[in-house]
Design brief:
alpha/beta; 9-stranded mixed β-sheet; two-stranded antiparallel ribbon; globular
């Protein structure tokens, strides 16, 4: 499955830290494609860089990525953004279970890969993402489906997307925030799934309002943090690129 990372000129070199953590935590069996503008000034190894032309700002997000997806026909892909560093091992076992399960879901649209606490997904009675119900159990952990009126059905955080579903909402003149906040995905009949009591990816959010966050090394849902050695290595990366 292809893993696609969306970036911009302002944050392109944050990707060196992202790549360091992905290599460390064994995200090595994916074809990684970076969608950006100016190429990075570090060694990307086997990662493929695709230039989208001139960076005209976040308001042009959907316009910029459309030409790439017009010719992209894989059935599924993973999408993430440029400013999340991994904070623990990629859960390959759960990922394999997910990828086998979604093939059985005829109306599958998207599967969130990060740890979503109960305060966020609700327990049948709401939450930030709206209420959800378990549709697949693996014993101690589960896959749930959001209800059709939930918020953030189109969240751009780490997820598996069915390409045809993603393209359905690839409309012009959307920033990433406009993309996520739309209500058009409510009642669309698609299955938007999320993990319960398990996760595939744990990640810390690096950039907040244009600056490096003070707790970038801690996962946003609190389940993991990088060790001191990795923090030092990544801080040195940030300093090299003038971010600290």
């Amino acid at each position: 499955m292809r893993l696609i990372i969306s970036t911009c000129d302002k944050y392109i070199n944050v990707l060196e830290a992202v790549k360091y953590t992905m290599d460390k935590f064994e995200v090595t069996n994916f074809d990684v494609t970076v969608l950006g503008f100016k190429p990075p000034n570090f060694d990307m190894g086997t990662w493929e860089f695709v230039s989208l032309g001139e960076d005209k700002g976040v308001r042009n997000f959907s316009n910029d990525i459309t030409p790439f997806f017009n010719t992209f026909d894989d059935e599924y892909f993973i999408l993430t953004t440029d400013d999340y560093v991994m904070t623990s091992r990629f859960n390959h076992e759960f990922f394999r279970e997910i990828t086998e399960f979604i093939k059985e879901v005829p109306n599958f649209g998207r599967m969130f890969l990060m740890n979503v606490k109960r305060d966020f997904y609700g327990n049948g009675n709401g939450g930030l993402y709206g209420s959800s119900s378990v549709i697949k159990s693996f014993g101690d952990y589960h896959i749930a489906e959001l209800n059709q009126i939930s918020q953030y059905r189109l969240s751009l955080q780490h997820s598996i997307w069915k390409t045809s579903y993603f393209k359905k909402y690839l409309t012009p003149n959307l920033s990433p925030w406009d993309w996520e906040r739309r209500d058009s995905a409510k009642h669309d009949g698609a299955a938007i799934l999320l993990p319960i009591d398990n996760y595939v990816i744990s990640a810390g959010h690096v950039m907040i309002k244009g600056n490096v966050s003070s707790n970038w090394h801690e996962s946003i849902f609190g389940e993991a943090t990088l060790d001191e050695g990795d923090i030092k290595i990544i801080n040195d990366i940030f300093k090299k690129h003038g971010m600290m």
